[in-house]
Amino acid sequence: MYKNLAATLVAACLFSPFHLRATEPSKAAPKATLPIKAAFVYVTPVFDAGWTHQHDEGRKAVEKSLGNTVKTTVVENVAEGADSERVVRDLAQQGHDIIFTTSFGYMEPTLKVAKEFPSVKFESVTGYKTDVNVSVSNARYYEGRFLAGVAAGRMTQSNVAGYVAGFPIPEVLQGLNAFALGMRSVNPKAEVKVIWLNTWFDPAKERDAAFTLFNQSADVITFHTASNAVMVAAQEKGKMAIAYHSNMRQVAPEAQLMAITHEWGAYYTRRVSDVQKGQWRSGNVWGGLKEGMIRVGDFGPKMPAKVRAEVQQVQKDIAQGKRHPFDGPFSDNEGKAILAAGQKLSDAQILNMNYGVAGVVGKVSQ
Question: How far is the C-alpha of 231 from the C-alpha of 270, rounded, in Å?
Fold first, then answer.
């Protein structure tokens, strides 16, 4: 499996055929002679929640902020590989000034096309390779996971949480481990049982995994997959759940304790604005709570005010640098010391994570 930021396959599920739809600005602004043309490539259709939904909300934020000085185009449901290379090249040929490719599997096709169109700016979301006209960005999802763990640790009655996950790659392990450490920071007896699906998007498998975890005493559950099936299952079983990617209260009004949401609007708007001003430069952004790229909120009715206040305080502490999800001391789940007291993991150590921390049940392998 992938060993570095290449592991950020947040939504690497494959779909075809792709669909193209152009959208107009949603809010009027002073007319520009030549509006910036911004394109967004999505790996799934635009659902009403989840990974792609959040990116499309980011696109809408660009339109709202920049009005008719920008025109956006969306290409959704694009399979990674040859299809994505063709789509990205078509968008560049159509005269788009900036193209956002929002899945890890688009990284290499984006780099290839970028060399053919040096005047076009490319944004590889969850990629890790840059070029003079290719920038990369990702979010510190693990910061939100730690907060979710604090909530789960306070709310569980069985001391068991469930975690439905796609693949045991570094990004997923970061979230799983941060969740476990968050739980055990307030409830040392807590443990996390994880089921690996080896797929990002399979609602039936996600649902089955959730029910299996409920049968193994989990009374609160979360996930790192692409659908809302785990939330629906928790609602049906009367269990507690923590949403990921976006707010899922609409399908789990009673079950949802809170949601970890990805916020792309400010970043996307800034990058399009940079193109307008002639100030765009390649870079590598890895933002979290401090930068507003991760948000925790959308609390449900089962969340007591006291626990909500605690989660919000820890969120402030992390954003202000007073606390880190991977502060020592902690060990892996086989008893090997990972970090001593007074230390915290470096970015390089986080990006190459390949173990489960104490509290995670079962083996974790790459």
Answer: 33
Cα–Cα distance measured from residue 124 to residue 147, given in angstroms and rounded to the nearest whole number: 27
CA dist., res. 111 & res. 307, Å (int): 45
Q: Are 61 and 265 in contact (CB under 8 A)?
A: yes
User: Could you give phi then psi for residue 158, rounded to 5 degrees?
Assistant: -95, -10
User: Is the whole-model pTM more than 0.85?
Assistant: no
What span, in angstroms and rounded, lies between the C-alpha atoms of 33 and 245?
37
Average pLDDT taken over every residue of the chain: 90
Q: Tell whether the model's pLDDT for residue 366 goes beyond 80.
A: no
φ/ψ region of 289 (left if φ > 0, alpha if ψ in -120 to 50, else beta) reads alpha
Residue type, 139: A
Rounded CA-CA distance 126/136 in Å is 7
| Structure-block tokens of residue 279 | 């100030």
Q: Where are the domains of the chain?
A: 5-139+263-287, 141-254+294-361
3-class DSSP state of 280: coil
Best CA proximity match to 41, nearest among 9, 88, 90, 3: 88
> Any idea which of 154-168, 220-234, 352-366 has the lowest mean pLDDT?
352-366
Per the structure block, which two tokens stand in for 260? Answer: 């970890």
- CA quadruple 188, 190, 193, 194: dihedral, nearest 10: -60
Amino acid at 217: S
**Alpha-carbon 197 to chain mean position:** 18
Local structure of 20: helix, strand or coil: strand
Write out the two tokens for 50: 């989840």
Q: Is residue 2 predicted with pLDDT exceeding 80?
A: no
| Closest-CA residue to 176 (of 119, 128, 224, 124) | 224
pLDDT attached to residue 40: 98
Q: 285: which strand partners?
A: 137
Topology adopted by domain 141-254+294-361: Rossmann fold (3.40.50)
Distance of CA 267 to the CA centre of its chain: 14
| Burial class of residue 51 (count of CB atoms within 10 Å of its CB; 0-12, 13-18, 19+) | buried
- Over residues 149-170, the pLDDT tens digits come to 999 999 999 999 999 999 898 8
Topology of domain 5-139+263-287, per CATH?
A: Rossmann fold (3.40.50)
